[in-house]
Amino acid sequence: MTEPLLEVDDLTIQYRTSGEPITAVSNASFTLGESEYFGLVGESGCGKSTVAETIIGALDDNGEVVSGEIRYKGEPIQDFTEEEFNRKLRWKEISFIPQSSMSSLDPLQRVEDQAREIARVHGYDTEEAIERFEELFEIMGIPRERISDYPHQFSGGMEQRTIIALSLFLEPSIIIADEPTTALDVIMQDQIFRHLELVQEELDTSMVLITHDISLVFESCDRMAIMHGGQVAETGPSQQLYDSPRHPYSILLQQSFPDPRFPDRELEEIQGYPPENYGPIEACTFVDRCPWADEQCRAGQPPLEPAGADDNTLVSCVRTDAVQESLEREQSIEEGVNEATEVRRTDASVSNVTTEPVLELKGLEKHFYQSGGLVDTIFRKDGTPIPAVDGVDLTLGTNEVKGVIGESGCGKTTLLKTLAGLHDRTGGELRFRGEEVAGFDKSDWKQFRRNVQIIFQDPFDSLNPKMDVNTILREPLRIHDIGDRDRRVKEILEKVELNPPERYLDKRPSQLSGGEKQRVSIARALILEPEVVLADEPVSMLDVSTQASILKLLSNLITEFDLSMIYISHDLSTVSYICDEVNVMYLGRIVESAPTKQLLEAPKHPYSEALVDAIPIPDPSNHRERTDLEGSTPEPGAIGNGCRFKDRCPQRMDVCENTPAFVPNDDAEGHVACHLYYDHSEVTAAETEVEPSTSD
Q: Which pairing describes strands 223-228 and 231-237: parallel, antiparallel, or unpaired?
């Protein structure tokens, strides 16, 4: 057996504080082989990024390795000085891809100058290094001449690919990738992993992929480790951990992740929150969240040991046999239960949705204006119109949930804010309960805003940090002059499962976890008992286990409150769980609308196909082709005539220079705006000029 390239052996890391030290990592062990992709998975605060920072010598000043070793090619490196890391390891042996590309590139330097500096510091011939950098730019799908651009001239996806090219151009043996695609859309994420696979084939590079997204690891990594509360819960081949996870956290984490192949599957909630670990860890860190824990789980930290005699996995749990027996009993009971008795949001909604529309959009438009310069500003000229939302039709019924999906920049958030009255529309109609809102007076608008509430994407920024939870929830009641406030506040906290309410009333947002913040945001939206909720990517900022609990909560509240919802997202996995219908948006226009299951199984529009094809599947045995869609969404101001997707479409035709009509599907429900799906001989020139819209 060949020696591992990287070994993390019984590693413990602590951060000094004014009180007791915080143990971020405790007795963690794993290995990385040559030309291997290894995944490190876990929730925020589990210690995975701390491990990565220690490997590259970037641990914070108050952090220290208390015990254990990190070995690169057999040599211990955890005690290297800064000079030794720079001279021996960084960039040329071990490189790092950070999570945020925008804060990692120098905005004042051209990209090629940043590459020259790295090459010069490490003693490489700069011209040879730049030639290699240009080659990597092409492998990453960026024209080589763009190395002379500044970072602000790149899109978010191009910035991240630039970081990857910088991390590779000195041909390191190992890449440490810390959430390299978290901020990117699913298509861009798929493109980046396709490029990384090409680089691996060429350079035999190994990678440690750090992420909270278990589907990425199952799909991309040979082996993996699952961390919780600073401990490695389980490690081994990805296929084996998928087929037969042994640690309770591994089991629940896998069951909490949405799988677009099974949109009706119930998501498992992981109760509680990760521990803070003040002082040494003297028990299993999952004990307070584990449904199978008993007193022996508190009698010392469980060792990382082989799961069985013929098993290639290591697990840190003293009750694996009891857990497996319990799961087998539960499975036997479930097999005897009639599945028809289970009520899922997607099933229940069929009978509850009414045809009476709550919201109606017809030809809705929202344009922004780009100033032509100082003269336009002085004379208050509007400038060039930028169509962010351009001719959208959509009808929302009672107790109906419609999703709007698309890449960043497609206009979905602008659509939501226009519906909420946060943006003035440029054109089109918006009706609430059949009445055009353009005719509303001040009191009508106040009532409209009570009936149409919004849940913002980022719970960290949408709650006033100076207010406690009680004040945050009482404020909308005060604005709308609604009494009995104490009772209402406590009741809504119970509804969003923040129990007991008294525990949370006096807390400020900084004292809440991410999941608790989002529950408060949901409570604030529902306390006025609205008819419509506009949800703007409500789980995108949360860990997967927290996502599951919030999605389940929203699903239950929609039924309980008889709500209608427009759910905005770029993640089809979460959309598949909660939405009755999906509307695919591209550059301000809806290009396809269809029932959720139908769109996932048989998308019509080439862009919808690309979105579905790019969804990572949480199953190592599922071998899918990476999407071949190139490029990124252009700026709205750069779009021309005709189909807006034509410049990226793999099936482009001459007729795509004309705007496609939004026509019903011949063989299924829904509509699609694509020249592939109607007989052009029956469509007049006037019809091809019709703006695309969604179905009613």
A: antiparallel
